[in-house]
Amino acid sequence: MRNYTRIIIFLIAYFGFINIASAQLKIGYILSERIRTEFEEFKEAESQLQLEYRKVQLEFDQMVLKMDSLKQDYEVKRLMALDKGESIKQELAQMERSIQNYQAEKVGPQGELMKKQAQMEYEILGKVKEAVDKVAIDGGFDYIIDASVGLLYFKPKYDMTDDVLHELRNLDSKK
Fold first, then answer.
1. Is the pTM of the predicted complex or chain greater than 0.70?
2. Does 89 score more than 80 pLDDT?
């Protein structure tokens, strides 16, 4: 009986300390999707990437049109039996390889556009991290969580998104 009493007292004290300790934690959250849509630098980077992508797509489409034209020439010459169309056949094969290389070089996983996007995001996310750190330190927060990733419930009073956006704008104006 004595052991049970000690265990019960220990558990009550333990949970009491946990409640006291957790009451001292200050946790806030941000909505990164909102920062992504409202922070001007994100919008500029996305439109710049879209412009680059359109340019690459246009070049790609022109290459495909040229290849289609070569295919039509090849078929005409083959049907008319003017020659076997060997030179056009070789040019077609070369054009297909060029298109595949171009596509891999520009939009593939290791392509120029992917690298450019990664670099832009790295720079912008560095600024977001700096702003979140400043808001957390200034506000005395122990944790700031990204609610866009899967927080199921949160009180609006702990939303630090506006503060982070404000800090991001301050960072931009200082530079």
1. no
2. no
